[in-house]
Fold this sequence. Notes:
Elements: H1 6-15, H2 19-31, E1 54-60, E2 66-72, H3 75-88, H4 93-98, H5 116-137
Antiparallel strand pairs: 1-2
Amino acid sequence: MASPSHETLAEHFSLLPDADERLCFLIQLGRNLPPLDPSEQIEENLVRGCMSSVWLVCERGADGTLTFRGGSDAQIVAGLVAIVLARYSGRTPEAILSLDPASLLAGFGLESEISPGRRNGLSSMIARIRQFAAEALG
């Protein structure tokens, strides 16, 4: 089964009536991420700037799109990883670089639930994905 799109996730979040339900859904998203193989949880895949451990793996498809997989050792952060993957995975490097990083959580209703430390980590994840895209362009 395919993962839900970023737009579908935003719609689901917008239907949840309160912060507790949004956080529970965020945690569930993280739990539903396919686990990374322990061999992928290495220094090379570790995202710098995150308070929790976050790993991102990038694979380039034959059609030039980039597919991302990832995970975290923290439940809420793993949910944020799921949102990041839904937004960026399966796109071309050009499309990734054209997306506004500041709009990632627009419509999710998570603004007050995400701590400044997690926001910094989220920015680090997006920066790493943008770096993968820039490298893919050569």
